[in-house]
């Protein structure tokens, strides 16, 4: 099963990118993990909030296959412990899926169409983080989940 993280816009902060890269690299030992970044929309100043969400939503939906299990990272989603998240990942493996795709929204979140396509929503906190922070926090939590599933001494319960 491939695990993909889909986001919008590149990370312009080198420090955050370098930290995220540490976990991306570590994840390769456990599973096929890919990050795909949709380029930022051009001329966003001419778009209102809804138009931007709509356009980003179309780009996101174009990247999803019918067989994908789609998880939105959303502050209003379900909150899980790290052990709970590792169980969530294990359940996806057990279902024999080809790909699970986690999606980080744009500055205003997701369009209705993207919400409708989603299989579930997961929150990393009730607080709102920047999309670049979410890339780092998510990759670390996914790495942690694999170490929990493998009984490795990274996570202390
Ligand atoms: C700047 S936030 C957008 C916030 C916006 N208020 C919204 O309605 O989603 C950009 C993206 O980062 C992700 N994000 C931010 N905080 C999060 C959290 N606490 N848990 C999960 N994802 C989060 C979401 O994917 C969100 O769409």
- Determine the number of helices (DSSP H or I, runs of at least 4 residues): 5
**How large is the share of residues in beta strands?**
15-25%
CATH structural architecture: 3-Layer(aba) Sandwich
Q: What is the N-to-C order of secondary-structure elements (H for helix, E for strand)?
A: EHEHEHEHEH
Total beta strand runs: 5
CATH superfamily annotation = SPOUT methyltransferase, trefoil knot domain
> Which spans of ≥5 residues are poorly predicted at pLDDT below 50?
none
The major beta sheet can be summarized as: 5 strands, parallel
Bound molecules: S-adenosylmethionine
Class computed from helices, strands and strand pairing: alpha/beta
Radius of gyration: 15 Å
| C-alpha termini separation | 27 Å
Overall pLDDT, averaged? Answer: 96
CATH class, anyone?
Answer: Alpha Beta
Shape: globular
- Counted up, domains total 1
Strand order of the largest sheet: 2-1-4-3-5
Q: CATH topology, what is it called?
A: Alpha/beta knot
Approximately how much helix is present in the residues?
A: 40-55%
Give the secondary structure arrangement, pairings included:
Elements: E1 2-8, H1 14-27, E2 33-38, H2 49-62, E3 69-79, H3 82-94, E4 99-104, H4 112-117, E5 120-123, H5 131-149
Parallel strand pairs: 1-2, 1-4, 3-4, 3-5
Bound molecules: S-adenosylmethionine.
Keywords:
single chain; 157 residues; alpha/beta; Alpha/beta knot; five-stranded parallel beta sheet; 5 strands; globular; binds S-adenosylmethionine
